[in-house]
Design goal:
Layout (H helix, E strand, L loop, with lengths): L1 E6 L3 H13 L5 E4 L10 H4 L3 E2 L6 H14 L12 E2 L3 E5 L2 H16 L4 E4 L1 H7 L10 E5 L3 E3 L1 H12 L2 E3 L4 E7 L2 E7 L6 E9 L5 H6 L7 E13 L19 E4 L4 E6 L2 E6 L6 E2 L9 E2 L7 H10 L12 E10 L5 E4 L6 E5 L3 H17 L21 H13 L18 E2 L3 H6 L2 E6 L2 E7 L3 H6 L17 H12 L1 E5 L3 E7 L3 H8 L11 E7 L5 E11 L2 E7 L3 H10 L6 E4 L4 E7 L3 H6 L16 E6 L2 E6 L8 E7 L3 H12 L4 E4 L1 H10 L34 H10 L3 E8 L11 E4 L2 E12 L4 E9 L8 E6 L2 E8 L14
Parallel strand pairs: 1-2, 1-12, 2-9, 5-14, 12-21, 22-24, 25-35
Antiparallel strand pairs: 3-8, 4-8, 5-7, 6-7, 10-11, 11-12, 13-16, 13-17, 13-19, 14-15, 15-16, 18-19, 20-21, 23-24, 25-31, 26-29, 26-30, 27-28, 28-29, 31-34, 32-33, 33-34, 36-39, 36-41, 37-38, 37-40, 38-39, 40-41
Length: 816
């Protein structure tokens, strides 16, 4: 009998056992692995051991920073090795573009509390006396990065966890009783069946084949990756392999522009390369080991690049002490895949992680299993974050291959997915193409970012649209500013098909909606309410709009990009007398927003549209151009308007009628770029950017959505405690006058040289004429008029705290 069986004894699986046993005090932990332990056949044992802490993504930086610190506390499994080399890491640039991006990375790391230093080429090789500075533009030194020996960490994890370990034992099946894990069957005749409450699948590159039989999709692929332990360098030949500390004195070295990395193995140099054709391997084809034969043809370019950097290699033929292709896991979006199965209670995924993030992933899985919540928001790592198309085999093949090829590429935060494209099209796509839409991707959908047909509007509003250059001008057009201003002046038509609808119905629907949401859901039929879902700890699970269509029927509107995990959240909490259904595919959506919205709508419907007949934050079925649609008097852009949810098959009839009706009222087709700047001027929060589970409603400025006088709702107790304690930091509006600072998020904020926060979201406010940024700041700093600085590409820019919202603070335009 076990409390938990962990399947996979690599660094993640062993880490889960460690955290459950050591941190949370669980007993009766079992770890299975198909190979030997701790030196198992997976990626952990052959990986060169780089822990890369620097990241542009907060979650990945948190996971890596925690992992590095944890590994430094562990013991090697024997006295023949050292398992942690705290020499830091060097992220190297050869090109001006990469050097510029390292400045941006330095600022992001500063925002996340990670110490980094920008070094010139000469300063870089001061750390690397075997390298030539001439190919380099500079580097970023990352103090917390490190080199580790993975299987030693596994050994110490297992030893400290108190787990019972069964090597050479594969998972055969999972026995289920009453919808929950009851036991596992194994291939080991000594333990053919183990009763257990929980199973954690942490088999990484083997996991998709394992989990699919249980209805759990883990969209990742294995990729072969060449690594060589190469020639002995003359200047290192005096290092004695019997002296443990002599194995490595150098930082982890990543030559980003060639997609390569280096480390020392006593007298020899280790070289890894991603600069080759991607060799994808599906889970069922991996075989018994993550090691494959070395492919010399894939290393030709890498050897030439290595000779450029390491003078002693020039003129030498390739000489390897050891060379192999090791397989590593690549998920469809580069993030870990963790969480509990929706179909089998107690069955967990802990996959798609490398050594860099493994400690943090294991910590998060254990926290989630024990308490139902985690220190860091798991939205980007959630098992149920994927839309249906994202787990289809062909899509996974293509996008993971792309991710392998682009692993060290400079990725702009506004850059759409490069491939695959045109996976999902809205009913309006052909009309948008005809209007010159420049598309971006969202949950597989192609949605307009702006329309080239609006280029003539730019001159009309030129004085209000600052010029951009360089990084800030990428994936941006002045047309976005023109569409923003045209919406404020007249009206805009927005494709909102990226909204999804979760329908909650049944005898207990009203009670359940009230318990699930922080705001009151007991309004009359036709009421539309902005609210939050909260975790048991009071963190913001997400914000959403809820419409009451009947006494026992509610529509909950969430983003298509988060629909699977939002649907999962609604379903796992639902009582037996409630039906939770995804009806998103039945409806498209359009928004008509702006001062002329009522005039346009009056031409396509006979419904009353005055404040008395169709009030703000109300909804109802209405006839638009002969089509029965569900209309709501709301607007995410801070203008008078209607959000229309249209039967999919009749969508074009409504689009065409609105475009025709708007011709005399200045209606512009408007893309998502303008929507973001419009909502930011109004102070509307962006889920996943401004708000997520690491913040409560009082910190986020959404305390008014939590009705503590209600009988009950998820997170009520923690929310009441948070209100009583008062927030120590609050989401704060900042303005920056210098148009050169085109902030996009994750830039650190300083008060008198002390970092006090970082930017959550930012954009230029074309109506107010300022760059706008939001950041969580200490309450004593978040005072209107306080002068601060924001660091952008390692340069400081003056900023000032402003009262929010900057645009229409009295809501006069919305309620016109």
């Amino acid at each position: 009998m076990a409390r938990v069986v962990v399947v996979g004894g690599g660094i993640v699986g062993a880490g889960v056992a460690y955290h459950l046993g050591v941190v949370h005090g669980w007993e009766d932990i079992v770890v299975l692995d198909q190979g030997e332990l701790p030196h198992n056949p997976g990626s952990t044992s052959h990986a060169p051991g780089g822990v890369v802490v620097a990241s542009h993504a907060k979650l990945m930086a948190d996971l890596a920073s925690y992992s590095s610190k944890l590994y430094s506390t562990l013991d090697p499994i024997d006295d023949q090795h050292i398992n942690y080399f705290a020499a830091g890491g060097l992220e190297m640039a050869r090109t001006p573009e990469r050097w510029e991006d390292l400045h941006r990375l330095h600022s992001a790391c500063t925002a996340f509390g990670i110490e980094t230093h920008l070094l010139s080429a000469d300063e870089t090789v001061a750390h690397l006396d075997f390298m030539d500075p001439r190919p380099l533009a500079g580097s970023l030194y990352v103090k917390e990065s490190a080199l580790v020996r993975g299987y030693h960490i596994v050994g110490d994890f297992l030893a400290k966890s108190g787990a019972t370990v069964y090597p050479h034992t594969a998972l055969g099946d999972v026995e289920v009783s009453n919808g929950r894990v009851a036991a596992v069957m194994t291939t080991n005749p000594e333990v053919p069946r183990i009763e257990t409450e929980y199973v954690v699948i942490a088999a990484n590159i083997w996991s998709p084949a394992l989990t699919r039989q249980f209805g759990m999709e883990v969209p990742l692929r294995a990729f072969e990756h060449p690594y060589v332990i190469g020639p002995s360098l003359d200047q290192w030949k005096h290092y004695d392999r019997s002296v443990l500390a002599d194995e490595n004195h150098y930082p982890l070295i990543r030559d980003l522009d060639t997609a390569m990395y280096y480390r020392r193995h006593w007298d020899r140099i280790g070289i890894g390369s991603y600069f080759h054709e991607a060799h994808m391997v599906r889970s069922e084809d991996v075989g018994p080991s993550a090691l494959r034969p070395f492919t010399p043809s894939d290393f030709v370019a890498a050897w030439a690049f290595a000779q450029e950097l390491v003078p002693e290699l020039r003129g030498q033929n390739v000489e390897y002490e050891k060379a192999y292709n090791g397989m590593f896991a690549f998920s469809v979006d580069g993030y870990p895949i963790i969480g509990e199965s929706q179909t089998i209670g107690g069955l967990w995924s802990a996959n798609a992680s490398w050594i860099t993030h493994a400690g943090g992933v294991a910590k998060s899985v254990a926290e989630w299993m024990v308490s139902g919540t985690t220190e860091w928001d798991m939205r980007q790592a959630h098992l149920y974050r994927f839309s249906r198309h994202a787990v289809e085999a062909g899509f996974v093949d293509r996008i993971t291959s792309k991710n392998y090829r682009e692993i060290y590429d400079i990725i702009h935060p506004r850059q759409p997915l490069t491939e695959p494209r045109n996976v999902r099209l809205t009913p309006f796509h052909d009309r948008q193409v005809a209007a010159g839409a420049c598309f971006t991707t969202f949950a597989g959908y192609e949605l307009p970012n702006w329309y080239e047909s609006n280029a003539d509007l730019v001159e009309r509003y030129r004085s209000q649209i600052p010029e951009r250059a360089g990084w800030g001008a990428q994936f941006w057009s002045a047309i976005q500013g023109a569409e923003h201003l045209a919406t404020r002046k007249n009206a805009g038509l927005f494709d909102l098909t990226g909204l999804s609808i979760i329908e909650v119905s049944g005898a207990g629907a009203a009670r359940y909606a009230d318990e699930l949401c922080s705001n009151r859901m007991d309004g009359t039929v036709g009421a539309v309410t902005y609210t939050c879902w909260l975790t048991s700890q009071g963190g913001i699970k997400r914000d959403l709009t809820v419409a009451r269509l009947g006494e026992d029927r509610f529509w909950m509107f969430v983003g298509e990009g988060t629909l699977p995990m939002d649907l999962h959240w609604a379903q796992i909490n639902a009582p037996h007398d409630v039906v939770v259904a995804d009806i998103s595919d039945a409806y498209s959506a359009l928004g008509v927003f702006g001062p002329n919205a009522r005039l346009i709508m009056e031409k396509v419907t006979d419904e009353g549209l005055t404040n008395d007949t169709f009030g703000y934050y109300t909804g109802r079925w209405m006839n638009v151009a002969g089509v029965e649609v569900y209309g709501m008097r709301i607007s995410y852009v801070g203008e008078l308007g209607w959000e229309l949810h249209i039967p999919m098959a009749q969508s074009l009839e409504v689009w065409d009628a609105l475009v025709a009706a708007g011709a005399d009222h200045g209606l512009a087709l408007v893309g998502g770029g303008a929507m973001d700047s419009l909502r930011l001027e109004k102070g509307y929060r962006l889920w996943g950017g401004d708000i997520y589970t690491e913040y409560n409603v009082y910190e986020a400025g959404l305390g008014w959505t939590a009705k503590l006088d209600k009988f009950s709702f998820v997170g009520k107790e923690a929310t009441a405690a948070a209100k009583a304690a008062g927030p120590k930091k609050v989401l704060t509006c900042l303005t920056v006058d210098d148009p050169g600072a085109t902030l996009m998020g994750n830039e650190p904020v300083f008060s008198a040289d002390q970092k006090v926060g970082f930017v959550t979201t930012a954009n230029f406010g074309y109506s107010v004429g300022k760059m706008i940024a939001y950041a969580y700041l200490p309450t004593d700093v978040a005072v209107a008029g306080t002068e601060l600085e924001v660091e952008y590409f390692a340069r400081r820019y003056a900023a000032k705290v402003a009262e929010e919202p900057l645009f229409d603070p009295r809501m006069e335009r919305m309620k016109a």
